[in-house]
Every structure is written in structure tokens, then in C-alpha cells.
Amino acid sequence: MSKLLDVRDLHVSFTTYNGEVKAVRGVNFYVNKGETVAIVGESGCGKSVTSQTIMRLIPQPPGIIRHGEIHFADRDLVKVSDKQMEKIRGSELAMIFQDPMTSLNPTMTVGRQITESLIKHQKLGSSKARQKAIELLRMVGIPSPESRAKQYPHQFSGGMRQRAMIAIALSCRPKLLIADEPTTALDVTIQAQIIDLMKRLQEKFGTSIILITHDLGVVADIADRVVVMYAGIVVETGTLHEVFFNPHHPYTWGLMASMPRLDLHHEQELLPISGSPPDLISPPKGCPFAARCRHAMKVCTEYMPEMTDLSSTHQVACWLEHPMAPKANKHTGRNGGEADE
Amino acid sequence: MDMIKYTLTRLGYMIVTLWIIVTATFFLMHSLPGTPLQNEEKLPPLIRDQIMETYGLNDPLPVQYMNFLGRLVQGDLGKSLTYDGRSVTEMLLEGFQASSFIGMQALVFGVVVGLFLGVAAALRHGGLLDNIATIVAVAGVSIPSFVMAGLLSYWVGVKWQLLPTALWGTYEHTILPSLSLSFFVIAQMSRYIRTEMVEVLDQDYMKTAKAKGLGRQAIIFRHALRNALIPAVTVLGPLAVNIITGSLVVETIFAIPGIGEFFVQSIQVNDYTLIMGVTIFYAVLILVTIFVVDILYGIIDPRIRLAGARE
Question: Which terms does the UniProt entry file under GO BP (chain A) (predicted)?
Fold first, then answer.
């Protein structure tokens, strides 16, 4: 499979009154054609910044792309001009956001908000674009799309708005769709519908998807590969199977243990990861997770761990992978930590 | 369909409101001491009585009120009791021509300049242009229009001899009065637009618009400005009435035959018909403006349109 998107050593910072916040500190990952990659991690780990940097939606200033390359369909998105980026955005690259309640313009009809990008990118006439918009609304499962297209966002429910957002995003058949927590603001039943819709449309159009979320249930449902981020770096990446059933990074163990599961006894407590992420104005020089890690060794606080290949698809950045590291504790985290206390 | 029903309902309310205003003013006005007659004591009682009889002022108040309403329904405001028996309607229309021309001009100029200033300030938020806009706004709100009028009249009219200092006649005569009225409008508009624009630019749907690949202009004018206009329209209503009905002070400084002087004069001399005329005129103007503003709201913000229709 060929890589559609390849992010290499991306560094993004924000200047604030208190100093430079290094939100993304050397992120590497790629997305193949037709594949869904989930980026998971807690709030502030840099997953949204990474995705918005790909779209070049980071306000500059205060944001700065310090270093790195974003290869997308033979171009480096870090280097293309603003004008070129306008052409790429909405046509080849599209994005949907977390809160469908606020992501649609309240004073413009839904139909018009869809036709806008069609007119801009595909140079359609307005009546043609309107027909296409109605078609798109039907495709995302909105009943009586003809009359719905003339309505305003406040006349739509939350789930319908997210469907409309998907219609906008997919209107020009993008190669890559970035979904930034698309289900977080929705009811659980609606979440499942939206994820199903995204899966269905992906099959139909072969769109690649980057899904940003902290909901591991959603990840298990849709992702092919998983990128786990922590404090601005990628700590583990692999196929869905590798990350869920054979996680190697203590942070990933923690994420798995904090997820409610149907196949566990209900007496078993969920284990939160205690502590909080490091301050990214002056990040620790070693592994950023060391302070919260039960397996931390002396080396962890001093040196940043290198990426270790576990398979051709599975990599982890942890000193526990070093041949000299103790191996005994490795599996303690996986099943909720019963071997621990 | 909803729109027609909404408009008719609103029209009904407006008529009721107007009737209440007219009635209240009528009785309040008659409770003021004195009569429209000047030098009342020197007049022989016979002549005095005859004059009062002619104008129907001897009738009991309820009868006068009914007569007045009857004429009002036919669109007759009566004759002024002090201005040589001129028709009140004619006087108001004449005065309003001058006042409204100056006012409209000031309003249009002020809104356009204020809009641009506000948008520019919001886009350069924190920059030089933003600071300039702030200074203009503070000055525009705090310097009274008569100071502005005096300064303009002195510098542009007397010192540089570019435009006439006062009086009425050609188009040139309207420029300075309009300018001095427009500063307040510029100040108000630019502040409201700036504040709202800064807020709107920060909204999620701005990111959506950008993610669609729209150009900067489309984003600002199609998506941001319309949402930023809503609060500005609110202040525009009362502002428009104030400005269009003329500022007495500015009209006095530039010696403009506007409507402003009637407001003050008519009450001092108990010119009953003129008082009523001015009141009705002012009330209708305000009611219509409020109505227009509400309609504008609906055009700008569909959420308001729907709420209005459900009423």
C-alpha cells in the first residue's frame, strides 16, 4: 500500500506570555490509502494540534511549525503557499469537528454551506451544486433532503448536524478526512450511527480517515491502525490488533486498564492513570511519562527513549524494550493490573 | 405566508401603541397651565371667547379629544395655533425634508465608515489600525456634536473656505451638518462591529469555513460579517430615529430649517396642534424604525425569524 500522508518529525509550538508551549515535539506517522488511523491520547497530548497543522488551520501567530514535513499526495504541506493550501483544503483534505452545534454557521442554510465548497472547488453552477448538495444530504441519511437543504442549522438535531458536517466534508470527495473527536459531543446511540456512516462512506469512496479521539470503544470499532500520543510525542503505534491485544508502552497499558469492558467482572475497578501530563513549556528531558509510570527506571528521567520496532507495523518508545531492562513487570498493566498490588 | 401574518400582527400592535401615545399626550398637554393665546389678559373677553370658539377650545375636553381623533383618522393634523395658521402636516413635512436629508446622509456615511473601521480593527485586532479605531470611537462618543459642528464650521467653513458655514440651499450646505452628526454613528458602529467581529472570528464555524478552503474574503464577508451585524442592528434603530429627526443643536448652529426647533417651540407656546403633530410624527417614526429593525433581524438571523413567526 502506498502512503497518502506521511508526517515526519513534526514540531509545533505556541508562543504564550509564559513562554513557548511545545505542543507537538517530533511526531511521525503515516496514513495509507483507504485506511483509518486513530490518534488517541488524553486532552492536551497534541493530537488536535497535529491534525490542525496538517490542515494548516493553526493560527500563526501564536502557532509556529518549528520543524518537520507533512507529505500529502506528492507535496509538503508545510511548504505550500496559502493560496495552494486553500485549493487543497476542502477538496483533497477535509475535516469535521467535535461540536456540530457550533461548527455550522447559524445564519446560512445547510444547503448553502454544502454548495459553497462545491462551487469553489468543482466550479459547479449554483443549480447543479444545489442538486449535488441534496444528493449528499440523502447520502448521509438525512430524510427529505430537498426541504432540509433550505433549513438552518438550528432546525437540525445534533446528530443531523454532524451528518451535515460529514456531507460538507465529503462534498468534493477528499482523499483524506480528518475527524477531530466527531462523536464526543453526541449521545451514545447517535455516536454509533455516525461511526457507521463514516465506515459506510469510507467503503464507498475509499477515503482515508484520521480519527482523533480519546474514546477507545470508537477506535476498536473503526480504526485499522492506532497512534498513541502523549505529551506531544508518539509513544506507541501499531495495528489495531497489536495495540489493543499486545500493548507495550506503560501508558497504553494504562489507557486499556482505564477503559470499561463488558468481559470483566463488574466488581473489578477501573484503574485511572494517576497524576497529570507534564508542563509543555519546559518538558522533561527524558520520557514524558516517567513521572506517572510505575515501571520507571533511572534512565527514563534522563534520556528520551528511542522508537523500537516490534514488528514492521508496531513501534514503541519505551526503555523497557531495551535488552538490559527488567522484563518481569511487562504484563502487569494489561488486564487491569491485578498482579500489581 | 408566516411573514405576512407576522407583519399584520405587528402592524396591529403598532396602531394600538400609537393610540396610547396620542391619548396620553393629548390629556397631558391639556393639563398644562395656560392657553395657546399670547397676551391673554389684554384681549377683550368677547374676542378671546370668539377665538377659543373658532378653534373648538371651549368644548369639554372629551369632545375635543373625539374631534381630534376624528380628524386624525382622516389624516388631518389641523393648523398650527402659532405659526400663522399654517398646516401642521405641511410644516412637519417641510422641516423633515431638511432634517431627514441631513440625517440619512449622516447615517449612511456613518454606518459605512463605521462598518469598515470596525471590521478592519477586528482583523488587525491589537494592531495600529485597531488603536486608531479605538481613538476615533472614544472621540466620537465623547465629543458632543455641537463641538464637532463648531469646529467643522470654523475650520472648513471659515479658515479654509471650502464649504459654506451655514444656511440651507445647495448640496454643499448639507455636508458639514451631516459630517458633524455622523461622528457619533461612526463611533457606535465601529465599536459594536469590532467587538462582535472579534468574537465571531473565534467561533468554530469560522474554522469550518476555513477548512472548506474558502478564501479570506469569503470567510470574512460571507461568514463572519453577517453574524457580527446582529448587535449593531439593535443600536442602529434608535440611533437612526435620533439622527433623522434632527439634532436641534446642530440645526441651530448651521441655521437649517429642520424639524428640531418645533420640538421645543411647540411646548413653550402651548401650540396644541403642533405638539400633537410632532408627537405623532416622532412616534410613528420610532414605531416604524423598530419594525424595520425587527425585520432586519429576521433577514440577518434566521433563528429570530422563526421565533417571531411562532408568536
Answer: peptide transport
